[in-house]
Amino acid sequence: MGKAIGIDLGTTNSCAAVVENNQPKIIMYKGGNYTIPSMFAVDESGNRLVGHDAKKVSQLNPAGTIYGSKRLLGRNYGSKTIEKVRQLFTYEILEGDQNEVLVKIKDQIFSLEQISAHILDKIREVSEEYLHDEITSAVITVPAYFNERQRQAVRNAGKMAKLNVIRILNEPTAAALAYGLGKNLNQKLAVYDLGGGTFDISIIEVKDKIFEVIATGGDTMLGGIDFDNRVMEWIISSFQKDHGIDLSNNIVAVQRIKESAERAKIDLSSLEETRINIPFIARGPKGTLNVDMVLTREKLEELTHDLVDRTLSTCMRVLKEARLELRDLDEILLVGGQSRMPLVQAKVTDSFRRQPCKGVHPDEAVAVGAAIMAHSLTDQSYHKVELLDVLPMAIGIAKVDGTLLRLFPKFSPIPSYKSLILTNSKDNQKSIMLKIYQGDHEVAAENEILGTFIFSGIRKARKGTVKVEVLFHIDSEGILTLSAKDKDTGQKMETVLKVKSTTEVGTEKKTTIKRTKGGKATVKTVKKRAGRPATKSGTPASTASPGRTRASAGKKAPWETGAGADSRLPPPTPSAPAKEKWHDPVFDKATRELPKESVSKILAQARAEMEAAKAAKTPAQPAQKAAPPTAQEHPPAKPAGPETQREPEPSDELDKKPQFEAAAKPEQKPDTRPAPRGQAKPASEPQKPVPEPPRPGGEPSARGKEADAGMDSKAVQRTPESQTAFWRLLARLGAWLRSLWRTLTGSGEH
């Protein structure tokens, strides 16, 4: 049979202890350390690291290192607490299907229970290596102010780590066990527990082996991390003031500053001042910059004194709620690493009017108490310890007016039972739904919701006639279970725990619930995309069509959204009928297959033929004075006579029919209008450019020369006349290439 150990699962550091020969001792890790950092990381190779190995890579891999996860454990993603703390962590926080908190490291997603399970599994492995024995059971400690969901999450993490969790124990109670067991005490103790991430205060009465908790309170969002953040913020603001560079957006720099701030805070517990030196933290106009500043104890106390005051105000409130005075307390125990701070010790002394007791180790007392409890529960020969605990927060249901009906008031002794009679509110009602809350706020919705229980299987009857008895049971760990039965018939009803979920835009959730008789249920939630099936890119098929328009889609396209615009996507253009472009497959194929030098020769030959054709024509006459255009601006051409007969040109090939048979064509009016871009106009007769008015000396204009030369000069701006000659050149070139292709292939068709 394996051994049982006690585990202090802390926010920043964890510790384990075991009882051997009726003496508790701390389990030592490799390197002589008695604590292990509560950190989990995934390195660049995908290896999972825990403890000291994870801390080593945290500076260079801040986004892939999880720390402080205990603060998020067992919480709803939509809670105000998550909204506050998510900005303090460098890793990505996501929402799960059941509204739980998930964390993402690289491409892997973990639940907070899995993170805690990795840490617990590491502790188990180290303990087995140290004790040379198998570890099968454990007592795990939690803050006294943890609610029912958080306690259940710790228990689930223990199961994932292959541990039989025999008890969930409050940290202040464990510290009291480490202090008082075997001393035959009869005292009232105030346990002030200020750890890395949480704060607890418990009033415990010790009578030999009976430890009774009278009152407890705390703050699960106040601990050493908050003291570190104050120092970190001071370093960042001082650096920005000196150099004008804000380091808060650089997660690597923030992680380095955070670790330096923690070391400086620890040093100032024994020193009056310390130097913070972080080399190569940023690059400025004159080169690399370093953090080099001195932090004094006085400055640290100035930055954090309000945090200490918050802990003391909680202590005074708990004493008042327990109806106790300061004179009723016999000892003050300081537990937790942050309680070493001189300011904490000084203010506790002033507030409680007595020196705190130093009879326990601040870092090890909780683990020792857990080991004592584990040994007491598993070894019959050991002194039995009796714990009488209380409920840290009230548990109840919502009234009709929205206020909380407290079924179990605050500081109620546990374990405890409570019954509630419900009735059907309408005829033939099939089920009754009950929402359970835990907290101290008068308004039910402001408290933490533990779950929604549904009792089904109600017999059919008129409203108000069926009486359903619901039994609430809180065990010694503060975990709630429910059961229901028909009070008249005694028949048990099916009890379903429905996990709270949130509505998401564009999705729908299908929840499958396994009904069980009792307070527990298995819930499986499947998320499904609403609407039509999506395309490969994730876009619904209804919006993935190429012809999508703004009006039809109802959603802005990526290029319309400003900051999120995708520069690779063109903006939408108004729909217009497609224009037919001139296309000759022979011309396309010839230009693709012929080398560049051959194309140049063809262009030169076509240009020479054009020059020869123009030289054979009558020289241009001087233009008359401009006259208003008339309907017959271009008179019809005369019938072709002997003097006007010409040799067929290659451009005449364009006038043939698709069957490529010669066809007679009547003479048409000469058209000097340029063809649309990309479309060649058949050239039935070489057209002459419209000459400009004569210039002195009878020289033609430069524009006319360029038009006659076939637009050889690219530096001169094109005119309508030059564009006409350009399109004629392209038409002749296409016809010549087509003739060449027929000659080469011996084909009469394309």
Topology (elements, then pairings):
Elements: E1 3-8, E2 13-20, E3 23-26, E4 36-37, E5 39-42, E6 48-50, H1 52-56, E7 65-67, H2 80-85, E8 92-95, E9 101-105, E10 108-111, H3 112-131, E11 135-142, H4 148-160, E12 164-170, H5 171-180, E13 186-194, E14 199-207, E15 210-219, H6 224-243, H7 251-267, E16 273-284, E17 287-296, H8 297-321, E18 331-335, H9 342-352, H10 365-378, E19 386-390, E20 395-398, E21 404-408, E22 413-414, E23 416-423, E24 431-438, E25 448-456, E26 467-474, E27 480-486, E28 494-498, E29 507-514, E30 522-529, H11 550-553, H12 585-593, H13 596-615, H14 702-708, H15 720-745
Parallel strand pairs: 1-11, 11-12, 13-18, 15-19
Antiparallel strand pairs: 1-2, 2-3, 2-4, 5-6, 5-7, 8-9, 9-10, 13-14, 14-15, 16-17, 19-22, 20-21, 20-24, 23-26, 24-25, 25-28, 26-27, 29-30
